[in-house]
Amino acid sequence: MNSCPCTETHDGCRVVLTGGPGAGKSAVLELAKLFFCAHVRTLPEAAGIIFGGGFPRHEAVRTRRAAQQAIFHVQHALEATTEASQSALVLCDRGTPDGSAYWLGEGDLWSAVGTTREAELARYDAVIHLRTPSDSSHYNYDNPLRIETHLEAQAIDARIAEAWAGHSRYYNVPPTNDFLGKAAQALDILRDLMPPCCRAQVRPFLWRS
Ligand SMILES: [Zn+2]
Ligand SMILES: [Zn+2]
């Protein structure tokens, strides 16, 4: 994050960066911290807090549902921390609709936590979906919290697309073999979503200058 001379009052546009496993989401979030000004607030991934903190992670349907409910509530609480901030843009590492892509068995996440899909989609001003590569050689296996196989990752990616279907500002970033090209595309979308007062502070991406 870079210091910024802007003293405007900001609306705190809430933007989700999501993606199937191995799509490069974490790397794009790190790049956003380098190239955008201090008025971009990045939230951590709720699932990372839950599973990184030791929440049981196994295949039992009851356990998986409990995890998704916990993730939902942590996500809401994380977003609440930014409400009085002077952020020009709040960048969320996934949003609550992503949880519905991981729901198993009867019913849905929304009735389990007492909300509706429409209400949750409306929480976010825009969503950027980085697609999981279809070629397994471009799949990133480095994340120790990642347990999916490549085929499972593609299935999850398709369910994430369904979870966000119909959002009024859904940006699809297709998989490419060139990660920097894909990252630049995502960062361009983010820059366009910044209010003009802070957009001028976005650094030019090194591979484009
Ligand atoms: Zn500004
Ligand atoms: Zn700024």
Tell me the span between the first and last alpha carbons.
20 Å
Protein structure class: alpha/beta
Instruction: Look up the CATH topology.
Output: Rossmann fold
Largest sheet: 5 strands, parallel
Q: Looking across the biggest beta sheet, what order are the strands in?
A: 2-3-1-4-5
Discrete helix count? 9
Can you tell me the CATH superfamily?
Answer: P-loop containing nucleotide triphosphate hydrolases
Which regions are unreliable across 5 or more consecutive residues at pLDDT < 50? none
- How much β-strand is present in the residues? 5-15%
Instruction: Report the average pLDDT across residues.
Output: 89
C-alpha geometry = globular
The helix content, as a percent range, equals 40-55%
* CATH class category: Alpha Beta
Bound molecules: zinc ion
Q: Write down the secondary-structure element order.
A: EHEHHEHHHEHEHH
- Count of the separate structural domains: 1
CATH architecture: 3-Layer(aba) Sandwich
- Rg from Cα: 17 Å
How many strand segments?
Answer: 5
Task: Describe, in plain words, how this protein is organized in 3D.
The protein is an alpha/beta fold. The protein has one domain: P-loop containing nucleotide triphosphate hydrolases (Rossmann fold), CATH 3.40.50. Helix content is 42%, strand content 12%. The chain has a five-stranded parallel sheet with strand order 2-3-1-4-5, sandwiched between helices. Helix 2 crosses helix 3. The longest helix is centred in the middle third of the chain and has 20 residues. The mean pLDDT is 89. The structure holds zinc ion (2 copies). One zinc ion binds next to helix 9.
